[in-house]
Write a structure and sequence with these properties.
Among the domains are: about 325-390, Luciferase, domain 3 (Roll); about 420-505, ANL, C-terminal domain (GMP Synthetase, Chain A, domain 3, 2-Layer Sandwich). It is about 30% helix and about 25% strand. It is globular.
Length: about 500
């Protein structure tokens, strides 16, 4: 295979009338999706060129899936933009992406105008009416390769500018082949999609379905604020498979959702995004005793996940839940600070990954790409690119990998990967703040700042630049910051100050 469209073509031929994707407003069969994407591609082909980005400014929906497949058929790659993000952040993404075309709908077209985008705006509802040009589309396909980019997901950037992670067809094909086989996803499964389409957890939903013919039920984001509606949806549609972020699972269990209803058709629960609290995992395992649970790990840069652990024994609160072992055809290893290989248990090192799973790099950012994707220091015989995750891990006594912490100030919060430096950069743009520092303490983003202004107003101003999941959970006003001997902010001292304040109830 060289193109993910082969999944769609094969599945449409095998299961033409089966529901492929469904949201609360509409659904689409495999044959209809296979037909529509060619019409959409024909409309795009005259407005941009192969291997170029096309932005999608739509809610996660059947319409967005149709747009993705049309974009790929036109030989381009897609980039989903979150319709809930502030205009300022959308502008940053568009500055990097620089697309010729954005696909949207009438509902979102007006807000899109706030970004000042001057390219072509196309409405998804009109694209499928275009005449399909089979000759042109076949020529585009014939010139494609498996290293052509498929999608670009933007993650938080330490300089204050989001980074676009560019992932090729080959990386998705190699991952999905293993993912669906290991976890036995088939055409009989109904996948309950939780993740936004700009979050790489959704890649597993979309492409597992394309390969196997499983049906994806796209769950509206707002349902995750209302456990009863969410559980009604899961049971009504007899969802069998959840590929969710940890935070979504914890929302249900922490709010005692299972006291209302148990989604008894669920047989597979695959979770990722941050460390799963064992207490919450045990609640899920108790209410779904016949389901199997899998902890998967990996940053966006290695195409979804590089390790997995099938939960096969009891865990108690305080136990470390392993991230497991590498997926087939992925090399995962630990390096110490001198770039020596770590093999013994209980020795912490940086987790590094090699193989065809790696992203192409960061879009239009060669400097950042060169820093993160480097030559394997263990190999001086031939070029071998690795990705340094910045995550620290170790082997347990059974040889399973266990996550330890972040090497830098990047965090996982509410299922999202966030650079604290991006929050600090946005804070320091607020007039009332002279200097800012952010820490991640006990699952909370804490903003320390020197300046004036009410905390509520500062949070409001920050929400105009950052998505809600990046807004600090706590605010601490400081007269000065403690400094290290190198004249840098002493983050450890700030952490101790905050801990002492909380212990005194201040």
């Amino acid at each position: 295979m060289t193109n993910v469209l082969e999944y769609l073509e094969q599945t449409a031929g095998r299961l033409p009338d089966q529901i492929a994707f469904a949201d609360p407003d509409c659904s689409i069969t495999w044959s209809a999706l296979n037909r529509d994407r060619r019409h959409i591609a024909a409309a795009l082909a005259g407005k941009t060129t192969p291997r170029s980005p096309v932005a999608v400014y739509l809610e996660k929906s059947v319409a967005a899936i149709r747009a993705f497949m049309g974009i790929v058929t036109a030989g381009c790659f897609y980039s989903q933009m979150d319709t809930r993000q502030p205009a300022a952040r959308l502008c940053q993404i568009l500055d990097t992406l620089n697309p010729d075309v954005i696909i949207t709908d009438p509902e979102h077209a007006e807000r899109l105008s706030e970004t000042g985008f001057t390219g072509t705006v196309l409405l998804i509802g009109e694209l499928a009416a275009a005449d399909a040009d089979d000759t042109l589309l076949n020529e585009i396909r014939a010139q494609s390769t498996d290293l052509d980019p498929l999608y670009c997901n933007f993650t938080s950037g330490s300089t204050g500018t989001p980074k676009g992670v560019l992932v090729p067809h080959r990386a998705v094909i190699d991952f999905i082949e293993q993912f669906t086989s290991l976890f036995q996803i088939t055409e009989t499964d109904i996948i309950g999609n939780q993740a936004p389409f700009d979050f790489d957890v959704s890649v597993k939903d979309i492409y597992s379905a394309l390969k196997t013919g499983a049906t994806v039920r796209i769950i509206p984001t707002r349902y995750f604020s209302f456990p009863t509606e969410l559980l009604d949806y899961l049971t009504e549609h007899r969802v069998t498979t959840l590929i969710w972020a940890v935070s979504a699972m914890c929302m249900l269990s922490q709010l005692h959702g299972f006291d209302y209803k148990i989604p008894s058709d669920v047989r597979k629960v695959i979770f990722s995004g941050e460390v799963m609290p064992v207490k919450q995992l045990n609640i899920w395992r108790e209410v779904l005793p016949d389901a199997f649970f899998v902890n998967v790990y990996g940053p966006t840069e290695i195409t979804c996940n590089c390790t997995y652990y099938i939960v096969d024994r009891p865990f108690s609160p305080g136990d470390s839940l392993p991230i497991g072992k590498p997926f087939p055809n992925e090399k995962v290893f630990l390096l110490d600070e001198q770039d020596h290989l770590i093999t013994e248990p209980d020795v912490t090192g940086e987790l590094c990954v090699a193989g065809s799973c790696l992203a192409l790099g960061y879009y239009r950012n060669p400097e950042m790409t060169a820093r993160a994707f480097t030559q394997n220091p263990l190999n001086d015989n031939f070029p071998e690119r690795i990705y340094r995750t910045g995550d620290l891990a170790c082997y347990d006594s059974s040889g399973e990998l266990c996550f330890a912490s972040r090497r830098d100030f990047q965090i996982k919060h509410m299922g999202h990967r966030i650079e604290l430096g991006e929050i600090e950069a946005a804070l320091e743009k607020i007039r009332e703040i002279d200097r800012a520092c952010c820490l991640y303490l006990r699952g909370r983003i804490v903003a320390f700042y020197i300046g004036t202004g009410e905390k509520k107003e500062l949070a409001h101003q920050l929400s105009e630049a950052l998505p809600q999941y990046m807004i600090p959970n706590a605010w601490v006003s400081c007269e000065t910051f403690p400094l290290t001997k190198n004249a840098k902010i002493d983050r450890r001292a700030l952490e101790l100050q905050y801990t002492n304040r909380r212990s005194r109830g201040r």
